[in-house]
Design a protein that fits this description.
Helices cover 37% and strands 20% of the residues. An eight-stranded mixed sheet has the order 1-5-6-11-10-9-7-8, sandwiched between helices. A hairpin with an 8-residue loop joins β9 and β10. α1 runs antiparallel to α6 and α6 packs parallel to α10. It is elongated. The mean pLDDT is 95. The structure holds histidyl-adenosine monophosphate. Histidyl-adenosine monophosphate binds next to β6, β10, β11 and α12. The site of histidyl-adenosine monophosphate has 27 residues, from β6, β10, β11 and α12.
């Protein structure tokens, strides 16, 4: 059987793994300027957290969950038994529900305390139909800001995300920020009802999925890609006309702050997003050309009811996540690159087997001095060791030979300048780092 990775997943080979590290670093240092601190949550959680947090009728929960099961419970199921709900787990499809769970469990926003700002990066899992830019295991970098109700928080979040995209080299002309307000529990129920009634009126023109979702989650019909549904939904009632005064005012302030910061955006009253927890502001960053339907490189919004839904005290919240793979694709389209080059390594070669042990010691001494180095572990000839050093593009090579070693010295070669000098063993680290720094 050919060994291959599961469809919808991919390997981060060394260069890409370095790029991922670099992107995380850059994101965390940008978000750190805004007061965010890192958090890591488990890759799997109780399934119920996602059902309650993200919403049972969302595609993410109803179709795309990867269930995690112990072998004991797997056998129980095979034998027709039931698995207790506390033993039902799922791979995380996103980070928000997990972070909110942790905030509640660890009381990170005690009553009356200042808000908490958390950032994370890691793999997420959705059993979607794999295609270009749509994976089953993909990486997100996200932030969650718990305890802040003011519109300045929404604006700060969007500005920060755009600053990060700019810092990483994404051409700002190739992206647009869509924003909308989904209202709150005062104005949204009536709006939902209006959309539900509207879909029922047009049910014959709409697809099966939209009809099935009409009662459960009517706003999802705005996201349907079917031509008939798109036509109908283009004339559907707009949330903008249904917002209560408080939501209108909040949205107006967010937009005014973005205007003042010079961050352009497009108001899209059809932007609903695929997760149920949003209230008020939602936003999505899309690439305008070259990425087809999977052009959302990041998105987020406010979720003022989520903490309560998951079992905590009323606490407003908001956040976003950006997709690493899609952002890398957008960078490629924009002709930008993130450095993923290997750090310079010194190669330690030994002239023959009689000095292999000493070469081994030199390598360890260099590493102890903080110099990255590597050497032969296959008993190769000096000539082929030097070829390996060339392939590694090692800028410096130390050659350990029996004659020089007898005098307590080794050769240090500058591979770029093609020069060589002999150096006393106790000064090898100094000589190598001087050449590496050049
Ligand atoms: P989301 O829109 O579902 O939001 O995902 C955020 C980003 O993850 C998307 O814009 C996209 O770039 C990337 N993404 C999602 N699914 C896939 C996939 N199958 N393959 C590749 N990339 C993908 C969230 O996950 C929310 N938790 C964001 C948030 C945080 N809202 C508030 N706080």
């Amino acid at each position: 059987m050919a060994v291959s990775n599961p469809v919808g997943t991919y390997d981060l080979l060394p260069r890409q793994a370095r790029v991922w590290e670099r992107v995380k670093q850059l994101a965390f240092s940008t978000f750190g300027l805004y007061g965010y601190e890192p958090i890591e949550t488990p890759l799997f959680e109780h399934t119920d957290l996602f059902v309650r947090g993200i919403g049972e009728s969302t595609d993410v929960v109803s179709k795309e969950i990867f269930h995690v099961i112990s072998s004991y419970n797997y056998r129980t199921l095979q034998e027709g038994g039931q698995v207790r709900s506390k033993d039902r787990f799922a791979l995380r499809p996103e980070g928000t529900a997990s972070v909110v769970r942790s905030v509640i469990q660890n009381d990170l926003v005690p009553q009356g305390a200042a808000p908490v700002k958390l950032m994370y990066a890691g793999p997420m899992y959705r059993a979607e139909r794999p295609q270009q830019d749509r994976y089953r295991e993909f990486r997100q970098i996200g932030v969650e800001f718990l305890g802040a109700a003011a519109p300045t928080a929404d604006a700060e979040l969007i500005i920060m995300l755009m600053r990060f995209y700019q810092a990483i080299g994404l051409p700002m002309g190739s992206v647009r920020v869509l924003i909308n307000s989904l209202g709150d529990d005062r104005c949204r129920p009536a709006y939902r009802e209006a959309v539900r009634a509207y879909i029922h009126e047009h049910s014959s023109e709409m697809c099966e999925d939209c009809n099935a979702r009409a009662d459960l989650n009517p706003l999802r019909a705005f996201d349907c890609k079917e031509e008939g549904c798109r036509k109908v939904m283009a004339q559907a009632p707009l949330i903008t006309d249904a917002l209560c005064d408080e939501c209108k005012e909040h949205f107006a302030q967010v937009k005014a702050l973005l205007d003042a910061a010079g961050v352009p955006y497009v108001e899209d009253p059809h932007l609903v997003r695929g997760l149920d927890y949003y209230t008020r502001t939602v936003f999505e960053v899309q690439v305008t050309d070259g990425m087809g339907a999977q052009n959302a490189i990041g998105g987020g919004g406010r979720y003022d009811k989520l903490v309560e839904q998951v079992g905590g005290r009323p606490t407003p919240g908001l956040g976003f996540a950006l997709g690493f793979e899609r952002m890398m694709h957008a960078l490629e389209i924009g002709g930008a690159q993130v450095a993923g080059d290997a750090p310079a390594v010194c190669y330690v070669a030994c002239a023959d087997a009689s000095v292999a042990a000493q070469a081994f010691d030199v390598m360890q001494a260099l590493r102890d001095a903080g110099i990255a180095c590597d050497g032969d572990h296959q008993g190769r000839s000096l000539k082929s060791q030097l070829k390996v050093a060339g392939r590694m593009e090692a800028p410096v090579c130390v050659v350990v030979g029996p004659d020089e070693l007898a005098a307590g010295r080794v050769s240090v070669r500058d591979m770029r300048a093609r020069t060589q000098e002999t150096v006393a063993l106790e000064h090898v680290a100094e000589a190598v780092s001087a050449l590496l720094e050049r």
